[in-house]
Amino acid sequence: MQTASASAAYRTRSLYLAAFLIASDFPLVDVQTDVDGRRTFYLGGDPETLQARLRDYRNSTASVNAARYGDQLRRLKAVVHGDE
């Protein structure tokens, strides 16, 4: 069941985009598993700032601390694979 905070959050199925946004200080609100087994990540934060970061990501002009990105990617992979 989707929480109220998750319904208002930005959602993505991309593990890499979710890790980038979390490393960019957007909080992970929820992770849900769809009927087909795929995970959907819900992220919160200021919508205008989030849209700007998404634009940078899609244009390949975004930057984030590499160690922080790697940490978040490992954390999300643990969630996806049930280690967390």
The biggest beta sheet reads: 3 strands, antiparallel
Question: Secondary-structure element sequence?
Answer: HEHEEHH
Distance between the termini: 19 Å
What is the 3D form? globular
> What structural class results from the helix and strand content?
alpha+beta
Q: How many DSSP-defined strands?
A: 3
Strand neighbour order, sheet with most strands: 1-3-2
Instruction: State the low-pLDDT regions, or none.
Output: none
Portion in helices: 40-55%
Tally of alpha and pi helices: 4
- The overall pLDDT average reads 90
**What count of domains describes the coordinates?**
1
The fraction of residues assigned to DSSP E strands is 15-25%
Radius of gyration: 13 Å
Give an overview of the whole structure.
Helix 2 crosses helix 4. The two termini are 19 Å apart. This protein has 4 helices and 3 strands. The mean pLDDT is 90. It has one domain (4-80). A hairpin with a 5-residue loop joins strand 2 and strand 3 (39-43). With 84 residues, it is of the alpha+beta class.
Record the SSE blueprint.
Blueprint: H1 4-7, E1 10-12, H2 15-23, E2 28-33, E3 39-43, H3 47-58, H4 66-80
Antiparallel strand pairs: 1-3, 2-3
Helix pairs in contact: 2-4
Question: What attributes does this structure have?
Answer:
4 helices, three-stranded antiparallel sheet, alpha+beta, single chain, 17% strand, 3 strands, 84 residues
